Amino acid sequence: MVAGLLLLGAGMLFGLTGAMQYIRPGFLKEALSFEKTRPLHVSSVVFWIIFGAVGTMTTYLQQYTGKKLYSHLLFQLQLLLFSAAVLAILVSYFFGVFGGREYWEFNPVLAIPIVLGWLLFLFNFIKSIDSFKSQPVYIWMWLTGLFFFLFTFLESYLWIFPYFRNNIINDMTVQWKSYGSMVGAWNMLIYGSSIFLMEKISGNKDYSRSKIAFALYFTGLFNLMFNWGHHIYTLPTYPFIKHISYAVSMTELVIFGRILFKWQSTVSDARKLFHQTAYRFLVAADVWVFLSLGLAILMSIPAINVYTHGTHITVAHTMGTTIGINSFLLLAFAFDLLYDSCRPFSMLKNRLRLGYWITNISLFIFWISLIIAGVWKAKWQMSTNKIPFNEMMLQLKPCFIIILNSGILMFIGILILIFPLIKNQVLCYLDTRAKQIKNNNRNAADAYSID
């Protein structure tokens, strides 16, 4: 989780650099040009989601079973493989070494340790569960998310085979399909963890075994398999794929939003205060489910998608879901797992509240600005009398300035939130090490005196 929080901070910093390059073309062109900052930003944020989800699942699994993982050694090896891969990926971007596609723009060789680490995690997870009979819904969501992330990650590398690479329609269809399904896979991991946290805060274990929770699971599974079709409306592929995807678009968000909304009314004031910051981020995620759902439904209508595809409206949808839903839920988990773990946070309540509101307000301004820029670009794309692209981008400059400034505010808000968590873990680790050294010295002295 700490590694994930560091990646979140790095991802936002790279994102701000990219936003600055929109306003001032050529900014840091020699050292860190836009073709570097974009994959640095995207990969850092994607790995923040993966690291945060894995850290949360691992801890919540142990809390649920009441025992340790099957193998702590395998988990340490997994963390080592993931960390080495991410470090190598980010360094390769800095040096301009690419070779992949979109989310994964790094050389495909660097995907091997990620696959190996994920296989270890899947094995460790299955062995840590005694039986899958009569398990709550979050166990099934975690298991499904683990399998499908591995499947879609491997699927995203089918382009390395000439059969797919040499046919542009097949290539783009498989790429966009794999990425759409991959998001559904990590949603399974995050939504499952959300239900566990809601159960933990409320003290009510009925949610995880309720019909509505399993409805979310099966709807999410159906979305994961078929909802990706809305990514390929503009490709000349089979119509039935697009019709299915249109029918199922974003139905899982409806159910997830309903669960969050209904759950809030069951939590007592005492429990809200005990899990204050984590609870607030769950509420914020519920609001962003509503906002993202509205935008996603509009984007899923083919007649509208023709206009929005390839514009900043798509970016707004991505930012709303990645930050407003996924990252806010992961921050809720982070505050549940790391809050007061060693040193009290009672003196930081006002500061954390300030960071929370700065992050939410700036994200909303950021999101609206992207939508406005997207509408402007959509109008330009479909116009019969097009002005040059450069001139259109200059007209969008006021939106980009607002996007940059709101992004800076959001970065400040996130830093206010995550810095105490990271600092606390470092201090806890140093305290633990100091106590171990002290105990070792005392034991050595006792042994010497006995001799």
What does this structure look like?
It is a single chain. It is globular, with a radius of gyration of 23 Å. The mean pLDDT is 85. It starts with a helix and ends with a helix. The protein has 451 residues and is mainly α. Helices cover 79% and strands 0% of the residues. It has a domain of 130 residues. It is built from 18 helices and no strands.
Describe how the helices and strands are arranged.
Elements: H1 2-23, H2 29-32, H3 34-65, H4 72-94, H5 111-128, H6 137-155, H7 162-165, H8 168-202, H9 211-226, H10 239-248, H11 251-264, H12 269-274, H13 276-300, H14 302-308, H15 312-338, H16 349-382, H17 389-395, H18 397-450
The biggest sheet amounts to:
none
Distance between the termini: 45 Å
Secondary-structure-based class equals mainly alpha
Q: Into which percent range does the helicity of residues fall?
A: over 70%
From the alpha carbons, calculate the radius of gyration and give it in angstroms: 23 Å
What would the average pLDDT be, to the nearest integer? 85
Ranges where pLDDT stays below 50 over 5 or more residues in a row are none
Strand content: under 5%
Number of strands: 0
Number of helices: 18
Shape label: globular
SSE string: HHHHHHHHHHHHHHHHHH
